[in-house]
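ok so for the tutorial part 2 we go from a plain amino acid sequence to predicted structure tokens. step 1 is just haveing the sequence, like this:
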Amino acid sequence: MDTIVVGNGIIALTVAFRLAKRAAATDHVTIVGPAARPGSATMAAAAMLNSFAELDAASLDSEIGFQHFELSHLASRRWPGFIKEILAVAGSLLPPGCAKCEGPCGGCFALGTYLINNAAADSLDDENFDAVVAALEKFDEPFERVSPRDIPNYQPEERQRATRAVYIPNEGWINPRLLVEVLEAALSRFPQVSFIEGEVDRFIKPGARIEAAQLTDGRRLGGDRFVLATGATVSGVLDRSELGIEVQRVFYGVGVSLEIRSPEFPHSKCIRTPNRGFVGGLYSVPYFTGPGEPTDHILIGATNFISPVPRPNGRVGSVESLMRAAMEQINSNFYRADLVRVNVGWRPTSQDTLPLVGKTSIDNLIIASGTKRDGLHLSPVLSEKVVAMLYDEPTDPEFRLFDPERKPHKLLTREAAIRKGVRHLMSAAYQHGFAPAKSRMKDQVAAMYRQDLERLHDQVGAIDWGIPPDMFDMYRYGHARG
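step 2 — the prediction. this is what the tokens look like for a chain of 482 residues:
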């Protein structure tokens, strides 16, 4: 059985890893992707393995929202064992120095997240912080209320300091660059696995099944089964393939993160805010760069804007806002830090902003995309489910909610979408320096946003349903349709 895994991000690699572990001697797994990984969401991530800390006030209000959280919560529990599994397979082929890796006890993977509630944005932060704490209590997840003054390396500007904080010991982070390196070392142990440098342009389907994947240089790779896991470029591959199936569009969630070097003020734990203003909040995580290397690198993230086309470079405003937020809200001494790298990643964001993972009506094609900013965190679970599908094994019936050929889920009413949109727009405005006059200016701006969003909903015919706030501009300019 020949399986072609199209893509070389974290989901593609973990699917290939699980396939290789089950492969018979006559099986073959081919991984196709460009070595440079342009726009890779994986490589730009701080890879916070956060489940509860990612919740907001409305996350658990729908069945599909609850199922998405359940996947995330399961992934959090799987990560320590999954890391050990990868390290064990890689063995002597680990990168130099990694043979002494402490695995889940430290190094590139560790646990411990501080969630802070400061006044850098608006009261949306308070609502989402309360929602996280309520969920921690409801699901009996260990956490501790702490004084912000006791958070290691937390030295914000006085006017941006947090008034509340919790410590979540089971939510951590990983350096995705090292993870990819270790995964590739593990995969190289299997004679059934091969890597192809290149980019798939389209699938060739002369009949009812896909026959081959055609690369941009004209090469064709024949196979029995195909897994499409190229992140934000999935829609382009499907459009050019003309397969006769309908899969909602996947957009480019263009995000920027910053790697800094801070010898005097290194991190030991993740520090983050709640979700706010269309993004996952501000975060800073230790960024372990390798065994024997100084532990003084930190990753700051992340910005996000939705684009219908790839954007290879980060916006200057995105970089500036992250640098300023890190100095004001995390540690004012970061102004002395070295800027090591600006990362740009394209988060694969579906039209309804939910994952697209599962079998298609073409019986030898599975799609795994639309994971937004959760792809790396969910990869131990999603890869398990994809491989089960490849072997025609049962998966949870609820997982069908994420079928790639579904119609876009409409989770919000019109009023709820407009109300949520106004809250996030106001939050984003405050994050970027909005200082209303001491009149009714705040209310007037909010009313302006509401009127604009009501017109947008009228314009696209969203009468009895609401546009996901992340998708406002994609509907506004005709890139998404109801």
